[in-house]
Write a structure and sequence with these properties.
Layout (H helix, E strand, L loop, with lengths): L2 E7 L4 H11 L7 E8 L2 E8 L16 E7 L14 E2 L5 E7 L4 H10 L12 H9 L6 H9 L6 E7 L4 E7 L4 E5 L2 E5 L11 E4 L4 E5 L4 E5 L11 E2 L15 H7 L1 H8 L4 H13 L3 E5 L1 H18 L4 E4 L15 E6 L5 H12 L3 E6 L5 H5 L2 E4 L12 H17 L3 H18 L2 H14 L4 E6 L3 H16 L2 E6 L16 E5 L6 H13 L3 E6 L8 E4 L7 H19 L18
Parallel strand pairs: 15-16, 15-17, 17-18, 18-19, 20-21, 20-22, 22-23, 23-24
Antiparallel strand pairs: 1-4, 1-10, 2-3, 2-4, 5-6, 6-7, 7-8, 8-12, 9-10, 9-11, 11-14, 12-13
Helix pairs in contact: 3-4, 6-11, 6-12, 7-11, 8-11, 8-14, 11-12, 13-16, 14-16
The chain binds 6-O-phosphono-alpha-D-glucopyranose.
């Protein structure tokens, strides 16, 4: 989704900082970009559709110490230069960038038009600089003017406004994230940490209903409603710049797949007492619900199997966007487990709100330290995967599954056994991810890249991995891929199989092995080309992708070759796996 960047301080390269900052936010997904900065007494603005990757920061090196920038993922109004942010007031003294939606913008726009304001775009955002300009007729203080405007807005948003006359940045948050980076000689404001990670790791979080004002020397946090000052802690982020970079890899997706050589061990490096406490909370909860979106949701489905098979415990999953309809079952004694990489997904935050309104406790399994979900949960377990920048989630998924599996073992009073198994799994993944293995999958991708349909089946915890495999392949290669529970084949999907249709079969060594192999036979009998992901070679396979035998952690191991296959399918089809069309890394609107 949209990305926000801002800087004010002593540095005189704010324009180039904004370009670099926006480049670090590219992974969020966007279709146009723009920057505004003050050079001398004037405001300079540049907006473009398309990508910012080829833009040279040196072209924006005019001396300036205050700048804002934005990457836009279109919602209100098409992908045009005019609709790209920043948006200006009549006098071009106020520039605004904005994420989210101002729901009452039409009515505000009408009111402004009657007062003589002219609009250049179709966006909801453009009302903001004009409204602030109107308010400045009643007050000289820019912060007060912005606060008064905020009180009139409806919707979930985060915006950042630059005022040339007072050389101030003011930002406000109601639903979409904003983070302040505190540097020795200035302040950064961004929608996401990587935007300023090259400059500082000291951050302050803006909560919903709060705003900040900074002139680069100090920063003031205010409650929007009351106007009272709010005290904020500074937090040190553990992520390093190196972790956030591609290094020698061509794409973030491949780099993050390879990070799984050691990310499982980091995910399960949890305080054992805390895991036991959480397991007790699940044991005694009157109803445990799991929610997540996209790939994180597939970790939740896998957890249903982990909790059932390992601990004999029933939990309920719903996609976060569907959770609203289950609120009747929540009690103060219920527990909601929220699984999310970013900790900022709008539907997930909404589900948390619903659970909290019922007095239920919330446990979150999150990657981003200090994210809204992490801060607002009763218990938080960080998966410590490091920054995940490719839109297609890989290492976050396996980290989430590892933590959920560990909890399932703790619930069965076998925490140590679970930890050992996961440590061994991490080592097996490290061995598996060798250059020859990756090359084999590249060759397989080459062989099947021209197919337009691909199906994946699995049983037990390999069923959610079949669903996840389909997401991975669809989102980066645009091949139509679908995942099914093996037993469901005969109830419809088998009608789609033609001679040569590639079908991936996810296999383990467990009580369902015979069943899934017979499902594979059914596919083969209809002419399917069977790609088996399995610890053992089986006759039914036309291609065998060997994976280590990992007992109850088999699902974690099985998904990894599919991630690599999806990556190469994208590359071989000439697609950029890091920038899938129409998708965003962090979905902060409902
Ligand atoms: C987007 C991303 C997915 C991710 C999902 C949930 O759709 O493209 O990769 O799984 O959001 O995001 P979260 O940050 O909550 O895990």
């Amino acid at each position: 989704m949209c990305g926000i960047f801002g800087y004010v301080g002593k540095r005189v390269d704010a324009g180039s900082l904004a370009i670099d900052g926006l480049k670090s936010l590219e992974y969020r997904g966007y279709d146009s970009w723009g920057v505004a900065y003050k050079t001398g007494g004037t405001l300079t603005m540049k907006k473009e559709t398309g990508k910012i990757s080829g833009v040279n920061p040196a072209d924006f090196s005019a001396a300036c110490s205050i700048a804002i920038g934005h990457t836009r993922w279109a919602t209100h109004g098409g992908v045009t230069k005019e609709n790209a942010h920043p948006h200006l007031n009549e006098a071009s003294t106020i520039a605004v960038v904005h994420n989210g939606i101002i729901e009452n913008y039409e009515e505000l726009k009408e009111e402004l038009k009657k007062k003589g304001h002219a609009f250049r775009s179709d966006t909801d955002t453009e009302v903001l600089p004009h409204l602030i300009e109107e308010e400045l007729k009643h007050t000289k203080d820019f912060t007060t003017a912005v606060r008064t405007v905020c009180l009139r807005l409806k919707g979930r948003y985060a915006f950042l406004a630059l005022h040339t006359e007072s050389r101030t940045l003011v930002a406000a948050r109601s639903g979409s994230p904003l983070i302040i980076g505190v540097d020795t000689d200035g302040y950064f404001i961004a929608s996401d940490i990587p935007a300023f990670l090259a400059h500082t790791r000291t951050v302050q979080y803006l909560d919903d209903g709060e705003m900040i004002a900074t002139d680069g020397k100090t920063v003031l946090f205010l409650d929007i409603e009351t106007g009272h000052e709010v005290q904020k802690r500074e937090i040190e982020i553990t992520w390093s710049m190196k972790q956030a970079q591609k290094g020698t890899y061509r794409h973030f997706m491949l780099k993050e797949i390879m990070d799984q050589k050691d990310s499982i061990a980091r995910a399960i490096n949890q305080d054992e007492e805390e895991i036991r406490t959480i397991a007790q909370a699940i044991k005694h909860a009157q109803g445990t619900f799991l929610v997540g979106c996209g790939t994180a949701g597939k970790a939740c489905v896998a957890a249903e199997y982990f909790f059932s098979v390992i601990a004999g415990h029933h939990v309920n999953y719903a996609p976060a966007s569907e959770f609203k309809l289950f609120h009747h079952f929540l009690k103060p004694e219920s527990l909601l487990i929220v699984v999310t990489q970013s900790g900022e997904t709008a539907d997930v935050l909404e589900a948390m709100k619903i659970a909290k309104a019922k007095g239920s406790k919330v446990l979150s399994i999150v990657n981003v330290q200090g994210s809204t979900v992490a801060r607002e949960s009763d218990y938080t377990l960080l998966i410590n995967a490091g920054p995940e920048r490719a839109v297609a989630s890989t290492k976050a998924l396996t980290g989430q599954m590892a933590v959920l599996l560990l909890i399932a073992y703790a619930l069965a009073d076998k925490l140590r056994e679970g930890k050992l198994l996961l440590l061994e799994t991490g080592e097996m993944i490290n061995d598996m991810l060798n250059p020859r293995y990756v090359e084999r999958l590249e060759a397989l991708a080459d062989g099947i890249k021209r197919h337009e349909n691909l199906y994946i089946i699995g049983k037990s915890w390999n069923y959610p991995m079949a669903l996840e495999s389909a997401i991975k392949i669809q989102e980066v290669s645009y091949i139509h891929a679908e995942g099914f529970a093996g037993g469901e084949l005969k109830h419809g999907p088998i009608a789609l199989i033609e001679k040569g249709t590639p079908c991936i079969v996810l296999v383990g060594k467990d009580e369902v092995t015979a069943d899934i192999l017979s499902n594979a036979m059914e596919l083969k009998a209809r002419g399917a080309f069977i790609i088996g992901v399995s610890p053992e070679r089986r006759d039914v396979f036309d291609e065998w992708i060997k994976v280590p035998e990992a007992s109850t952690a088999q699902a974690i191991v099985n998904i990894i070759p599919i991630q690599i296959l999806a990556y190469f399918l994208a590359v071989k089809r000439g697609k950029d796996p890091d920038m899938p069309r129409n998708l965003a890394k962090s979905v902060t609107v409902k």
